Amino acid sequence: MEIDRPALADFLRRRRELLQPADVGLPAGARRRTGGLRREEVAGLSHMSTDYYTRLEQQRGPQPSEQMIAAIAQGLHLTLDERDHLFHLAGHAPPARGGIDDHVSPGLLRIFDRLHDTPAEIVTELGETLRQTGPSVALTGDLTRFRGPQRSIGYRWFTDPDTRALYDPRDHDYLGRMFASGLRQFAAARGPHSRAAALAEQLRGENDEFRRVWELHEVGLRPRETKRYVHPEVGALTLACQTLLDEDRGHRLLVYTAAPGSESAEKLRLLSVLGAQAL
Predict the structure, then answer these.
(1) CATH topology classification for 5-89
(2) Which of 90, 95, 158, 238 satisfies CB 3.0 to 4.6 Å to 207 for a cystine?
């Protein structure tokens, strides 16, 4: 497939002009000469340079990679049909549908974009973090940095001591069983050639504890609403976790809050300040 530069540039420009700052969680700022987002704002949302994005709208530069197109599709809050159209214009086959997909729906993103001051994250069914707010990064670290099987918190639980250190030791046994339970359930639902099945097979070959809990054949263990953390800077926190499920995509928006007036609420406020300073 060949890139259609004029159509690609026109599509990007028109989609950008349809979005307002509030649609993507950005402040309105000073008076704007024209409607829509600025190019530098779309570039920032897509995690690329303004120059690179500008060249695409000006029909210049090399053919963008699939990774770049996926990032722009997410930055512009495109629907799946719009994302696939963008891939075709850029000369690439769109990602296959039906499996685990990193493309977050515009509706879920609109909710997430309004949670600046709250720890929140969007995760896949395998516990792969796709988006985090600043307070969430302050609470658990940047969970989007992982690659390969380590993207899944279920895999990290059995292979990375730092992951466990964030949680109260009293909950470790249940969490290990819960992660194994979820992986077993998704491996059965998605089939023997799925990513869930591959993760389970890899862990069975690497980790004695996983083999032990896997052999329990437990399914249906759910995350508890109350989560107990042990943060390296502020100590113990007890937080409530509310979940919003996007059934079409298999994505979950997790929002963490503390009881008003509690010690955990004060620690969460402190973490938000520390996180903002770090950012």
Answers:
(1) 434 Repressor (Amino-terminal Domain) (1.10.260)
(2) 158
